[in-house]
Amino acid sequence: MNQQSDTAQAGGAQVVRPWASLLIRDFSLVWSSCVLAAVCVQIRNVANLYQVYHLSGSSLQLGLTGFFQALPHIVMGLFAGMTADAFDRKKVILATHIFHLGPSIALAYLTMSGSIQVWHIYVFSILSGFIEVFSWPARSAMTANLVPTAYLMNAITLMSMVLQSSFLIGPAIAGLLIDHVGLTSTYFVSAAMFGPAILAILAMRASGVPHGERRRVSIKSMIEGIKFIWIERIILSLFLLDFGVTLVGFYRPILPIFASDVFKTGATGLGALYGAPAIGSLLGSTAVLMSGNFRRKGALAIVAALFFAGGLMLLGVSQYFWTAVAAVVLLGFTDSLSVAIRRTVVQYLAPDTLRGRAASMITVFAQSTNALGALLAGVAAELWGAPRALVIGGAVCVCMIVGISRAIPQLWRYSE
To answer: Could you write out the DSSP letters of every residue in 290-335?
Structure first.
């Protein structure tokens, strides 16, 4: 790679081209592997949801399927982070890809034989979640060793786009496959697509062994990771900012109320509202890639959080459907900025021996906060109605952002 062709000097700071990290061979291989694996998982998840509803006709069992898919991330997140700091990260990623073949193939055979039951899907949803929870900390922790420090924001944003893209591409592919070739073939396709993902990891030359002193998987190691987050005030403030904003601003569970009762657009409108955050996230990640390696990450995190609060209030007061869609796009856009900043700062400040645990803390925080935020959103919508709940949530968001910024003033001043 000719590094000079992909970086430039502007005002003494290095400007990183949007595609810079993808020109690094090993990063492009792990990135390609992540894209394929994430799409495969989404295809299987959508097929699971479709099949559960087809078998049971129960919205409760549909909700339980989603719950079982997310549960391992909350239960095993910190343990997965310790694993990424104790073992060869490349081998961990390779193992997760190989193990992912099991649920897809088993579900395909059960469906083909006609013996599939809802509890089978629950079991394999939990198993798939446990496999996936070990993959992301290892990928995140290894990224910092594959690219130069100046490329870190670029590389992590590209990694974030993997998940964002999979939420759009995976369901679309799953829908086409289910309609045209059936559920059995859909599961087989999701398994087959892991083949190139496995080959990409095998083709990597870089080592996945953590630098420095190796850590054992233990309670002490877990406490070490928690203590690091507590001591590093910049990381702590970013986590608190995300926790506070998501807790009172988790809007996704109440979008069906807007589609059904507020705008009366039915399933088509609900699909547009649910797709809008993913579009906003991709636009936000693209903006980060185009801007290069900006330095005032702390200030940008605060500004993004304030705009997120504004998006909540805009959604709450929207009188027209497309205004609401624009508000949800804004929410996805600002959330993607926060994710890129948080993941970059964690990988930048954490020593290599702690990167897996630090990355896993992001997942545990996010999944736990989403669960609490979903509950709080439902209660608030029941008490005040969905529109007013979001306006109040946006106002509370602003108060929390100001409070966290004043309590940890280093965040506003933080730059790299």
So the answer is: HH-S-S-HHHHHHHHHHHHHHHHHHHHH--SHHHHHHHHHHHHHHH
